[in-house]
Amino acid sequence: MTANHAARDALPHQDSVASDETNEEAIVAEKANGDLGPGASRKHEAASLTRTDATHDDIPVQPPPAGKKTYAGAVKSRKPQSSKPAASGGHIPYPPLTNDEMDRASHEREAWRAGGVRFAPLQVPFKRRMQTAAVLFHCMSIVAMVSCFWFTCANPLTWPILVPYLVHLSFSTAATDGKLACRSEWLRSLPLWTLFSGYFPAKLHKTFDLPPNRRYILGYHPHGIISHGAWCAFATNALGFSDKFPGITNSLLTLDSNFRLPFYRDWILAMGIRSVSKESIRNTLSKGGPDNDGQGRAVTIVIGGARESLEAQPGTLRLILKGRKGFVKMALRNRADLVPVIGFGENDLYDQLSPKTHPMVHRIQMILLKVFKFTIPALHGRGLLNYDVGLMPYRRCVNVVVGRPIEINETDGAEASQELIDKYHELYIQEVERLYSAYKDSFANGKVPELEIS
């Protein structure tokens, strides 16, 4: 047999195989389209055999009807479905949190009155007395340490130590170099801070993990009068930040002017607090971590600042945020994720004069803020031995809730465009609103305040 004869004999067999595949695809496609009724399968099998035999007689095979999809074509055109469950609005909902609030008004009900002032009863547990002493120490620390400095200045015996200290103070960059060399975990973990946080009480709530291979900028809201909630959660280990977020080294940031106060600046440096300047943020987020590139570093900024402290009224939550975009710029430059944090109850710790009812006082406060970059709220709280008159914060619960991180991957050290800054600023505001809506009913001290962002 010649090669031409062999090739000619092989052709019918190839056509038969192709015909079988075409018929099977057509049958499956017709089944999928509902064209085959009961008992029709055998008819198609017979037709398939007839067509197969016919191919050996060189009868052309009819293609599938127009508009009918074959099984193979249907498989190719099918798109894989996402295995991720879709959350409402495209966002994973916040998990439920519980409020373990204790009855803090029991001792106030036992208070005795004199001249319209409620005085603390004599039978108060010793632990509560210690909690009050811890809060008093913290509130008076800046006054006590600056006074101690002036006392050493007036004592010639301390000058041999004081002069070198002042020289060191003039050249020190510990507040901005990002090395965290003066940070003392022992000081941050003293039992003093457990008593301090138990006074209100304050509690830190975790909603989502913060992976230790990222950098973070946490925005704390609201400022309140003195930001006691931020101090408890991020300047001490009393609320267990390092346990809830392992691998994250967080630094609370404050005004650079605080580091010009002798003795007090050493105290807050040891507590891990750093300057809120651009240089400080950049250095803190670019150093440390396994590769010394800032992974696992975080800074906490009280974004509303002193201006927002003038809006702190019990039962309200007014945030100065729409015009604050500097923290977003720093996040984009340092490729740090943005994390909103809300301190529920922060505004309830003090009373202060309202700008609406005392416009002259508010005007003076705004002048001080413009000139000195800080202001003095016209506040009042409770006293050491009474519940109505004094400068101590009220015993009201503060629940610090750390929200969902907003990942930033667009830039890496480059100057961000205004469009990109506005985009992430809007995303941040939306996340603050979602965080507040999720937990406002759980952590409100009484009437649920409306969130106002300006």
UniProtKB/TrEMBL annotation:
Q: Which GO terms describe its cellular component?
A: endoplasmic reticulum membrane
Enumerate the UniProt keywords alphabetically: Acyltransferase, Endoplasmic reticulum, Glycerol metabolism, Lipid biosynthesis, Lipid metabolism, Membrane, Transferase, Transmembrane, Transmembrane helix
Please give the start and end residues of each transmembrane region.
133-152
Its EC number(s): 2.3.1.20
Q: In which pathway does it act?
A: Glycerolipid metabolism; triacylglycerol biosynthesis; Lipid metabolism
Mode of membrane association: Multi-pass membrane protein
What this protein catalyses is: an acyl-CoA + a 1,2-diacyl-sn-glycerol = a triacyl-sn-glycerol + CoA
> Any keyword Transferase?
yes
What are the recorded Gene Ontology BP terms?
glycerol metabolic process; triglyceride biosynthetic process
InterPro entries tied to this protein: DAGAT (IPR007130)
Q: Which family does it belong to?
A: Belongs to the diacylglycerol acyltransferase family.
Q: What is the stated purpose of this protein?
A: Catalyzes the terminal and only committed step in triacylglycerol synthesis by using diacylglycerol and fatty acyl CoA as substrates.
Name the UniProt record assigns to this protein: Diacylglycerol O-acyltransferase
